[in-house]
Write a structure and sequence with these properties.
Chain lengths: ~180, ~220
């Protein structure tokens, strides 16, 4: 088989790929050995493939990796490991908060205060007789000028009042309340 | 050929990669960065070769990596992860190009007949170029500049096959063209680059590379 220069140029890329039937390859090699131009074309093409195939041609701008990682971090779905960790932490927080609440409840032996402005009445003598009005939130000593709806008051002990969520009157019970 | 792609023939590395992918699919998404780290440069360079703009290339590279993370369950083990990742990058870059072309009144698509033979224009004798030459930044820049002079269809085939080291078949799949087209375009791309660069090896190549913007020397 004999090939000319045009055929060599057309097949030179396949020759470098190693994809060529043996007869054609031998014919190509024989032609190239005797042809200065085709030798130049083959050497040059081989150089092109080798140079561009080098890893050093794969350059990235400064900071590329950091920016990519940052972008990934922003878009990363919560991993299962992370999610489990988060769940454990959240459960622990709930348990701790719950136990604190339970501890506080049992210690004070009363439900949530009816008034958000009320102060806990831990210093009030528990057996002290106090009065509460039906729709009020505060317990008072008898004769306190700040009793709400005096026509519908109920008498009970401070312990009972606090158990039901009443808070001590900051005026008449002032002496029993802690400052701060 | 040197390159990260060939390193994956290492069975231990391949096994490690498969393990990483399995764990990521099971929910350990934090491992994804470890998986793609070896391919960062390849992703960027593939995007840059197609887009020819550093800012666009970085943006597309990031988008491609995010897309790979999002669709990691769709990756099929019969192909290499690197090939899959590069394929996503090429798709993203081509989409960006099409979007830019749609916004531009000037068509960029090269109408050159790719079936015709290519006749080399320069028969200067090439001496063998030592790879150490690539340590010189100006040499890398000249090569990059010559590459950007190629029209898109030649550039993308050349980048995937000769720089990313995808096989002919993988390149064809990534671009959605036949293997025959890959071979023809690859032949032309290699010979065009040789024509562009060969005078320099005789001592006067930098002047040959000073094309005016938007023009081609062939």
């Amino acid at each position: 088989m004999v090939v000319n220069c045009e055929e060599v140029w057309r097949e030179i890329s396949n020759y470098l790929e190693g994809e060529m039937e043996p007869g054609l390859r031998l014919a190509l090699e024989e032609h190239i050995r005797g042809c200065q131009r085709c030798t130049a074309v083959l050497d040059g093409t081989r150089n092109v493939v080798q140079l561009y195939g080098d890893e050093r041609m794969l350059e990235v701008p400064l900071g590329f990796s950091q920016r990519l990682q940052h972008r990934l971090d922003e878009n990363m779905p919560r991993s299962r490991r992370g999610f489990l960790g988060w769940m454990v932490a959240a459960t622990a927080a709930v348990l701790v908060a719950g136990s604190i609440e339970v501890g506080r409840s049992s210690m004070l032996s009363h439900p949530e205060l009816r008034s958000e402005h009320a102060q806990p009445g831990a210093g009030v003598p528990p057996d002290m007789v106090v009065v509460v009005s039906k729709d009020g939130k505060i317990f008072h000593g008898h004769g306190c000028p700040f009793i709400h709806d005096k026509a519908h008051v109920e008498t009970l002990t401070a312990r009972e009042a606090m158990r039901e969520g009443y808070a001590p009157c900051v005026r008449c019970m002032k002496q029993y309340l802690t400052v701060g | 050929m040197p390159g990260e792609g060939t390193s994956l023939t290492d069975p231990a590395k391949q096994f490690n990669e498969e393990m990483l992918i399995r764990r990521i699919r099971e929910g350990e998404h934090d491992l994804f960065y470890e998986l793609i780290r070896p391919y960062e440069r390849r992703v960027y360079s593939a995007a840059l070769a197609i887009l020819r703009n550093e800012a666009d290339a970085e943006d597309v590279a990031q988008e491609a990596v995010l897309k790979a993370l999002k669709h990691i369950r769709q990756f099929r083990a019969e192909s290499r992860f690197s090939t899959w990742l590069i394929q996503i990058t090429v798709n993203e870059a081509c989409m960006r190009i099409r979007k830019q072309q749609a916004q531009s009144s000037e068509p960029i698509i090269d109408q050159q007949d790719e079936e015709g033979n290519y006749t080399p224009r320069d028969f200067a004798d090439w001496r063998e170029i030592p790879s150490e030459t690539l340590e010189r930044k100006e040499v890398r820049e000249m090569l990059a500049k010559a590459l950007t002079s190629l029209s898109e269809k030649y550039r993308e085939v050349f980048v995937l096959r000769d720089m990313q080291h995808l096989s002919i078949e993988e390149t064809a799949r990534a671009l959605g063209i036949s293997t025959a087209s890959v071979k023809t375009r690859l032949m032309r791309a290699r010979l065009m680059l040789r024509d562009l660069l060969s005078p320099g090896l005789g001592g006067n190549w930098s002047s040959k590379l000073s094309f005016e913007k938007g023009t081609k020397p062939w």
